[in-house]
Amino acid sequence: MWKKDSAFQKSEFAKLLTVCGESADFLTFRLYENSPFFIAYFKTLVKPEIIHHDILPTVKEELSTLEEIKEKLLIEDLSITDNIPDIQDKLMTGNLIFYKKEGQPACLAVPAPAVEKRQVATPETEYSVVGPKEAFVESLDTNLNLVRKRLPIPELQVKELMVGKLSKTRIAVVYVKGIADSDNVNTVIQRIQGIEYDEIADSSFLSQMITDNKNSPFPQLVDTERPDRLAALLAEGKVAIFSDGSPTAISGPVSLITFFSAFEDYLSIWNVASAFRLLRLIAVLFSVLATSTYVAVLTYHYEMIPRDVLSLLITSRGSIPLPPFMEAVLLELAIELLREAGARLPTKIGQTIGIVGGIVLGTAAVQAGLTSNVLLIVVATGALASFTTPIYQLSNVIRLIRFPFILLAQLLGLVGVAVCFAFLMSHLLKLTSLGRPFLEPIYPLRVKDFKDSIIRLPFSKQALRPLQIRAKDRVRFQQEAPQKKEWDIDD
Question: Are residues 106 and 148 in the same domain?
Answer without folding.
Answer: no
